[in-house]
Specification:
- The chain has 208 residues and is mainly alpha-helical.
- It is built from five helices and two strands.
- 2% of the residues are buried.
- The model has no long low-confidence stretch (mean pLDDT 80).
């Protein structure tokens, strides 16, 4: 009937729309912007089905970068904490002078050790606001802890994504094997139908 024909036309249009969407998505994975998929070498599917998933998970570049950032933050926090401690320094200096009325002679004498001047001393410094010092020290420690927790979180995400990737890879390989078996069965069915048609043993249906 006309209604049945129109329903079939709608199904065909839906199928074309789905095909165009899937083709564009497939091409986007290949770095292409097109609705048409060029002819592919389907023989590679057999090689894909033989691929084995990696046994070892390697750290990604972004995870390693975060690790280095965490180590740097820890070192900086420790350095900042050390700067809050009391500081005692020993200071020493030595100078040479020249004593002459004439400038040139005085300049020459200044490079000798006849009129040396020595100085030695101690310098001591410490933060006077103990409350502010403790707050600053706590801030440095929290920054270090936060950086470490962020790195640990990234490690957990990386492991989770890796396990999910392995599971997906395994499932897709199983699906590919089933599709290969289905293709073989359909091919055998097609060849059998061709053989039956040659022997006039096939029935053709026509919708009026």
């Amino acid at each position: 009937s006309v209604a049945a024909l129109k329903l079939r036309e709608i199904d065909v249009l839906k199928a074309k729309t789905n095909l165009r969407t899937i083709s564009r998505l497939f091409n986007s994975y290949r770095g292409m912007d097109s609705d048409d998929v060029e002819k592919l070498d389907w023989s590679l599917l057999k090689e894909i089905s033989k691929l084995q998933s990696p046994l070892e998970m390697k750290s990604r570049a972004d995870t390693m970068s975060l690790k280095f950032q965490s180590d740097s933050q820890k070192a900086q926090s420790k350095l900042n904490e050390e700067s809050l401690r009391p500081d005692l320094k020993l200071v020493a200096s030595s100078s040479f002078y020249g004593r002459k009325e004439n400038f040139n002679e005085s300049l020459d004498k200044s490079f000798s050790t006849k009129h040396p001047v020595y100085a030695i001393g101690l310098t001591f410094s410490m933060p006077l606001d103990s409350d502010l010092k403790e707050k600053a020290r706590a801030t440095y420690r929290l920054n270090s802890i936060a950086s470490d927790l962020e790195y640990r979180r990234r490690l957990l995400e990386q492991k989770s994504e890796w396990n999910n990737l392995l599971s997906t890879f395994k499932e897709y390989k199983e699906q590919l094997n089933v599709y290969n078996e289905l293709e073989a069965a359909q091919l055998a069915k097609l060849l059998n139908e061709k053989s039956r048609q040659k022997r006039a043993q096939s029935t053709t249906f026509q919708v009026l």
